[in-house]
């Protein structure tokens, strides 16, 4: 049969969806996703569920980004545990989440891997000077991977998110063609947001129409970091007013969403 295993499995996903077997289609997509192979290891060992309490707005923002990139949160969770075990990585500090209605994020992690990391946490907490929890480890890594900034985790003058590489290249090329600087676009837009004359749309770059065109999970090499240094006073005000702006908009207005929405509105998106 012609085609790579990935191509054939992607075709199988479409066939399963056409047949109405969405659960099986989702299972195949999970394995195809970046790091999805880690889920296969759980079939050869026991795994348990880690439940992380977050806000509904953050849960929706994660769902939007996860759907766009085709990532599997359980695979990212296992990667976070492995970073702790193998590199002794810990988040930069404890994070107090914003207020608002709560939701949960459930991820499945190999039991042996969890035990190994749990045994390390007392020492890592003592060295870090704060309690290093499983939930903070997993949530921080997932947010980093999909480009959602968590409070107290980012540079004081750096806007950051993750985008498809084609979109990043488009922003850079189109800005150069128009003689614009990304920094100026962002700072002007942030001022408009803060003075109440502009609000971003919820994931304006991710619509039902575009969702239908995604052929399969986006590989890690197809995503890239979008980082732009901006006025730190403006960024500090944006971060301090995130709860207020999110309540007004009805969804999580995190700095990465603001950056991508502003650049998309000003520079457009690549032709499909």
Describe the structure.
The protein is about 55% helix and about 10% strand. The longest helix has 18 residues, at about 110-130. The chain has helices spanning about 5-20, 20-30, 35-40, 55-70, 75-85, 110-130, 135-145, 165-180, 180-195, 210-215, 230-240, 240-250, 255-265, and strands at about 45-55, 100-110, 160-165, 225-230. A two-stranded antiparallel sheet has the order 1-2. About 30% of the residues are buried. The protein has about 270 residues and is mainly alpha-helical. The protein contains 13 helices and 4 strands. The model has no long low-confidence stretch (mean pLDDT about 85).
Helical content stands at: 55-70%
Low-confidence stretches: none
Approximate shape: globular
Derived from helix and strand composition plus strand pairing, the structural class reads mainly alpha
Work out the radius of gyration.
Answer: 20 Å
In order across it, which strands form the biggest sheet? Answer: 1-2
Strand count, sense and barrel status of the largest sheet are: 2 strands, antiparallel
Q: What is the residue-mean pLDDT, rounded to a whole number? A: 85
Strand content: 5-15%
- Beginning-to-end CA distance, first to last residue: 29 Å
Order of helices and strands: HHHEHHEHHEHHHEHHH
Oligomeric form: single chain
